[in-house]
Write a structure and sequence with these properties.
Length: 171
């Protein structure tokens, strides 16, 4: 009888300890999953903040470059272009190029396609403006065609901005 009682007691103690260990392991597993889930949510939030910042800066710099190109066209019509005018235009172009380069690493394919179209339109317009400034316009390049191209860039910028807002979930 005593051996039976001892065996029963040992089994009872082992069951109690085993249950506690299993409960602890289960609890640790749940905590690990919670931590992984929180890290995943944090990473998603960080990516959203990164994209939002990148998009806002790219949108701003693209608009500023287009405005700088428009201003440069006006300057070329009204007076001689000075070094300060060239510097202002080049600074706007450099700022846009930097933001576009950043977007190439961050933006999803749909947004990047429209950002690329905007970049191409701005680059083409920049080249046209600089050729006009040097007095070496290409075929069919005039101040009027440059002004029309500058206005057409806004269509690209609006499409890019719409795609960015859609990607961010902004209605």
């Amino acid at each position: 009888m005593e051996i039976g009682s001892v065996v029963i007691a040992v089994v009872g103690v082992a069951g109690t300890l085993g249950g506690a260990i299993l409960t602890q392991r289960g609890s640790e597993r749940v905590k690990r999953k919670e931590i992984e889930l929180l890290r995943g949510h944090q990473e998603i939030r960080e990516q959203l903040v990164l994209r939002r910042t990148c998009y806002a800066e790219l949108n701003r710099e693209a608009r500023q470059l287009n405005t700088a190109l428009n201003k440069h066209l006006h300057v070329m019509r009204e007076r001689t272009v000075e070094d300060a005018d060239r510097v202002a235009l080049d600074e706007a172009r450099n700022a846009h190029r930097d933001r576009y380069s950043e977007a190439q690493m961050i933006a999803p394919r749909e947004v990047l396609a429209l950002a690329s179209a905007s970049n191409d339109a701005l680059s083409e317009l920049y080249g046209q403006v600089k050729r006009l400034e040097r007095g070496e316009p290409g075929p069919d390049e005039t101040f009027e065609s440059a002004a029309q191209a500058q206005q057409a860039v806004w269509v690209h910028l609006r499409a890019m901005r719409h795609a960015m807002r859609e990607d961010l979930g902004v209605e």
